[in-house]
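User: I'm writing a short methods note and want a consistent example. For CYTH domain-containing protein, I'll paste the sequence; you return only the structure tokens, no commentary, since I'll be parsing the reply automatically.
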Amino acid sequence: MSGQEIERKFMVRKAGAPWRSRAFSASRIRQGYMAVTGATVRIRVRDDRAFLTIKGPSADGGMSRYEFEKEITLDEAQHLLDLCRGGMIDKTRYLVRSGAHTFEVDEFHGANDGLVFAEVELGSVDEPFEKPSFIGPEVTDNRHYYNVCLLANPYPQWKEEVPEEYR
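Assistant:
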């Protein structure tokens, strides 16, 4: 897949973890990042599949950017993950339908344990969507919520900045 990716990110209310009961799918994801300038290069293993993803810079606060993604073998992914520096992102992704859209709710483990946020992919920057009740304030333009930034600045270092109901 390649083309323009348009996504928005949101805090998720923690009370009762309602996204779990509404999820139609859950999968474990491990991912690492290559050190490059001007793009983000990610290697991801999601359950029993692996992907190489290259994302370009965003000009609109992180809402949209070019994305290229290609499925690779698990063996290729392991070799590429060995080249990644700075640690791994480890999370469980829950897929939750809301109206015509699917929200991806990521619950982090390891160095970012306790962090939960959601993303929704859109066809255009002004496309309307229906927010599930557990969705909170938008954080699309907040770099703390970029997976690649979580490696250098893990959640425990800025957790106190997050309102209590989202911790």
